[in-house]
Amino acid sequence: MKILFASPEVAPFIKTGGLADVAGSLPQALAKEGHEVKVILPLYEGIGGDWRSQMTFLKYFNVTLSWRQVYCGIFQLEREGVTYWFVDNEYYFKRWQIYGHFDDCERFAYFCRAIIETPGQLDWAPDIIHCNDWQTALVPVYLLEEKYRIPQLGNAKTVFTIHNIEYQGRYGDQVLQDVIGLDRSYLNEGMLAYFGDVNLMKGAILASNFVTTVSPTYAQELRTPFYARGLDGVINQQSGKIEGILNGIDMDLYDPATNPGLACNYSVKALVKGKDECKAALQRAVGLQENPDLPIIACVSRLVGHKGFSLITDTLHEIMGMDVQMVVLGTGDWQYEEAFRHAQSQYPGRFAAQLTYSAPLSTMIYAGADLFLMPSISEPCGLSQMIAMRFGTVPVVRETGGLKDTVTPYNKYTGEGRGFTFSNINAGDMVWVLREAVDLYLNNKKAWRGLQKEDMTADFSWTNSAKQYLDIYQRILG
Length: 478
Fold this sequence. Notes:
Layout: E1 2-6, H1 18-32, E2 36-42, H2 49-52, E3 56-65, E4 68-79, E5 82-88, H3 90-93, H4 104-121, E6 128-132, H5 138-146, E7 157-162, E8 170-172, H6 175-180, H7 185-188, E9 193-194, E10 197-199, H8 200-207, E11 210-213, H9 216-221, H10 225-228, H11 232-237, E12 242-244, H12 272-286, E13 296-300, H13 309-314, H14 316-320, E14 325-329, H15 334-346, E15 351-354, H16 359-368, E16 371-374, H17 384-390, E17 394-398, H18 401-406, E18 420-422, H19 427-443, H20 445-456, H21 463-477
Parallel strand pairs: 1-2, 1-6, 2-5, 6-7, 7-11, 11-12, 13-14, 13-16, 14-15, 16-17, 17-18
Antiparallel strand pairs: 3-4, 4-5, 8-10, 9-10
Helix pairs in contact: 1-21, 4-5, 5-8, 12-16
């Protein structure tokens, strides 16, 4: 099977969030199953010289975007069984950040046109074009007409994955003809129309052959107005072609036995000494008192409302009233940053606010912390809880999206489970389960070690998820 995987960001080349991790890992898992996989992404300024030196220039051509004829260059790099195509256009992609510009609609409409044109230009006929989030949402829409013009696309089917429905690509209807290059019928007949505006994600849901989300629970949640951000009607109308597949993680990359960023490597069979050394190193690195007996509660996240941080800031004094230390890593909304700065000054040596982005420090936290707190209001999948479990750090999560699918609640009578969970968006419920977790850590070390080992041996690899995607591909290909 020939698969073209289209994503606005792909690890390790360029990353702002979990989408890049998925786009970096899933294609490799598909390739290991014996399929021909190519990944296409923009050649951003932020893609470094080390990667650029490994690229080969293939060709350039012009892309038609409404009334424009726009340059498109294609560079190629091969890595771990996958071919990567980089779309070169400095006007659109030589920017200081990859999202958040006034012309994002035009930039990613251009990217979608480049995705459509590239197979014909390189004489490669994909069976599946797998698109991800609103930045590639126009591909299934464009393909409705362009597959009859480009022979290489004649048999192509499209899959569209919703990673986060909060970002839908919604713009005023004036972009339809002048920017996107489609006629008014796409509004008049409703494919892109959304309360008088253009909604790119809606178009992809309607136009693609199949739609996936990044966890089974999130697929069900999107049927409700609370989670669907106005698209619940479309989701329910198209429910027959919508399915949730849980994301995986790179089990080798997040292996505490081999990860080079740890103070001491460890495994399930040699857990205690390694964890203790990583904990001490973390305490020294972030300014916590070096105390092996107190559990460290950790958060590594964007500090925004839908991640549930108001539940934490509302109960900080209750949390710090327990025999715990706490570390928070991330940046985001000012009110959360300010609350954590204040907590650090109020609880010196016990609370550490690291208001920055640091991949090395996040690895230290995953390995050195004891509890990983994710009280998300909405969490399509979440990778952090899986990474934390891989390092033997026990998650405390709200039962939503992928958190519910990956963290089974601990049962103190049977010893089964992977972490501690609560269902309501309620700060009191969160503190209650945190107390249970802290109590287990302090008073039942045998049960705690069993919980850690259960987490570290859980299979969060991409193997099973890749097979589910392949099943969908084969279904829509007939």
